[in-house]
Amino acid sequence: MGLLVDGVWQDQWYDTSSAGGRFIRKASQFRNWITPDGRPGPTGAGGFQAEPGRYHLYVSYACPWAHRTLIFQVLKGLENIISVSVVHWLMDKNGWTFAPGEGVIADPLFNAKVLHEIYTHADPNYTGRVTVPILWDKQAKTIVNNESSEIIRMFNSAFDQVGAQPGDYYPEALRNRIDELNERIYNTVNNGVYKCGFATTQAAYEEALNPLFDSLDWIEEILSTQRYLTGNRLTEADWRLFTTLVRFDPVYVGHFKCNTRRIVDYPHLWGYVRELYQIPGVAKTVNFSHIKRHYYQSHETINPTRIVPLGPKINFTEPHNR
Ligand SMILES: N[C@@H](CCC(=O)N[C@@H](CS)C(=O)NCC(=O)O)C(=O)O
Q1: Which Gene3D superfamilies does this entry report, sorted A to Z (predicted)?
Q2: Domain 172-279 class, CATH top level
Q3: Which ipTM did the prediction report?
Q4: Where are the domains of the chain?
Q5: If you measure from the C-alpha of residue 240 to the centroid of ligand 1, how many angstroms do you get, rounded to a whole number?
Q6: Average pLDDT in the 18-44 region?
């Protein structure tokens, strides 16, 4: 894996040495918003009006951030409104690619072989990481946005007048609570597992591990008295948590050494993740074969043999009893 520097691909692993062995995630750079009338959103430029068929989403089934956008595409009935490509599970020395493989959906716009081509189509001098998800505008021929937390907000409401299904996962009355939950869950859980897994010193790993499990204990407590994170209504905060929870036992416990406890050891979290998995349309967005092969085979510094464990045997389709 690597990154683009002035539009040129360089094969480089994350630099943790300048931060005491800590993994520090860089901010996404394309931050425009699709809006119902094309006016600018909270950041970036305007001109990106919601229109069926105009936008294309590049995702990886393995990636928890891209997974959020796929879930919102399904929940909001945007499958016929926004087209999708899926990269190969293996992130190799060329980064994400469209090499043929089970579940891969080739790039219909440029017939790209590697994902970094999409970034240089948007900006020939792009410097930065080549990440999924990417939301591409076929009309303006550029990247609208490559930040999943913003893409799901657009999907939640921007297409409501042009054929999206009803459903509001960021309702006005719950916004403060959702933002507050997101903040802690992003730092300690969604990104927390990466801080543990990509740490290159014992101290940096331990610094991330305890806050991760403190947060899981705290969420378990919340879910022992209410069905969802904000109460009885399913919101964006739940979906953002879900994509990390569903990967936790199959990947993060082993590969990222997040092994204080497993999700199956938490009765409420385990029921909750099964409930979300069983919501119509969600299971088809979860591809465990891409998830497991991606992590165990792409991170050579963590797993040099690239062996993919066969376990654990867990069943997300068991009744959730919630
Ligand atoms: N903040 C971004 C993060 C996206 C991200 O880091 N995606 C990972 C895959 S899970 C990626 O593509 N990494 C490639 C790299 O860092 O080189 C978002 O939420 O959209």
Answers
A1: 1.20.1050.10, Glutaredoxin
A2: mainly alpha
A3: 0.98
A4: 2-162, 172-279
A5: 14
A6: 92
